[in-house]
Amino acid sequence: MTGDDLTVLVDRLRWDRRRDPYQGRREYSQTARQVAEECDRLVADGRADLAVPVLRKGVDRVTRALMYLDDSSGIIGDDLQELMDLYAKACAAALPNPVSLAGWLVKLECDGPGWPRVRLADFAPALGKRGIAEVERLVAERARVADSESWTGAFAVRDLREQLAEVSGDVDRYVAVLAEHLTNAVQYQRIAEVLHAAGRRDEAMDWARRGVAANSGSPYTDRLRDLLVGMLLAAGDTPGAVRVRREEFGRHPTAAGHRSLIDTAGAAGGEDPTGWALEVLRDRVDQEPVYASELVGVLVAVGREDEAWQEALRHRRWLGGAQWQTLLERRAVMHPAEVIQPYRDLVEQAILNSADKRRYRRAVALLPALRAAYQAAGETAAFGRYLAELRVEHKRRPTLVKTLDAAGL
Question: How many CB atoms lie within 10 A of CB 323?
Fold first, then answer.
């Protein structure tokens, strides 16, 4: 493909904001991918200098287009990031003006719509010392005038400062910049990871402990806690690793937390903590019945099926539909008679659920399992009587009757 052909191709990435945002998205994505493929071929052939201006133009045009076309699938966003990553690769090979490149990157990050992701580490080979210095200067300027409530002040400048500290290779500088905004567990995790990678294990564990303590109720803390436990095990502090898991389970006892506790205790060569965990869960269920689903999950996981079934019956209202159906399927294997009425209840609930447009299909979908339970219990004829009663009871629901007929039960 000639340079003129590439120009024509990248020009097809213009998007008129007056266009229907839902029309032509597939073709647009195909064009973006074709641009990427042609430019990748140029880079591989040692002609990155021809690809650089095309890719920059492509990134600019797709960035703008995404402000006006619908990309709820995220496909074109992925295409844009591919173009951006390829642009970094081409720049590293062709080495454009580093000052100009620095200005473009800072403007895209600070004044752009929030996409694509700017990764300074990818552009560092092309920027060199001169370009990095220019990024530093421009970011410092932005920081002086930025509105703390704006996108620039709240994220873009901070993100660039963190990335600059990272590419500097100065661990202390990177940690100091990250520590300026300890708003969530992710920041603590990043600090702990960089310190651990630098061989500063004790400092890494200290930051991880602080992060877990400061963000105990956040779902983002799970990965940080896993990191801390891994470091403790690697350091030979197996009691400390188990203690971290126990503390979290005591605070928030869940089936997932039990699995983590079991895994850590096993790695530490300690005793099985399941008995203690079940005591904790039963006490919590007495106070907060919503934890019944977690108790049932743990009982199933450790093979105490009968106890799980009894707890499920006792706390049925606190179990989700999927968990309840799974329990019915498991119980039906050995005790089919016990699941007949629960299945009938589910069918009735589905039929009467007027908020669900597919309620009749969902109800009928349960019937094969109910029929199998009747058969396994030796009551095959009873299922036929049940169907007859169901038709009579709901004879004023012709759609349900038609759905039943279509099922061939």
Answer: 16
CA angle 336, 341, 345 (to 5 degrees): 135
Reported as half-sphere exposure (CB side, CA atoms, 13 A), residue 14 has a value of 7
CA pair distance 327, 314, nearest whole angstrom: 13
Output the furthest CA–CA distance in the chain (Å, rounded): 85
DSSP 112: S
CA distance 63 to 402: 51
Residue ranges per structural domain of the chain: 335-409
Cα separation, 364 vs 356, whole angstroms: 14
pLDDT tens digits along 258-315: 999 999 999 999 899 999 999 999 999 999 999 999 999 999 999 999 999 999 999 9
**Token pair for 34:** 């074709």
Gap between the Cα atoms of 198 and 193, Å rounded? 9
Give pLDDT, residue 185: 97
What are the angstrom distances between the C-alpha of 55 and each of 58, 66, 97, 98, 326? 5, 16, 15, 16, 51
**Alpha carbons 353 and 246: distance in angstroms, whole number:** 41
Q: For residues 299, 304, 305 and 307, what is the CA-based torsion angle, rounded to 10 degrees?
A: -80
HSE-CB at 170 with a 13 A cutoff on CA atoms is 11
Question: Among candidates 32, 135, 45, 33, which has minimal Cα distance to 93?
Answer: 45
Q: What is the pLDDT of residue 153?
A: 67
* Lowest-pLDDT range of 5-9, 137-141, 209-213: 5-9
Angle of CA points 224, 118, 163, to nearest 5°: 55
Distance CA 88, CA 126 (A): 8
Closest CA to 372 of 333, 345, 327: 333
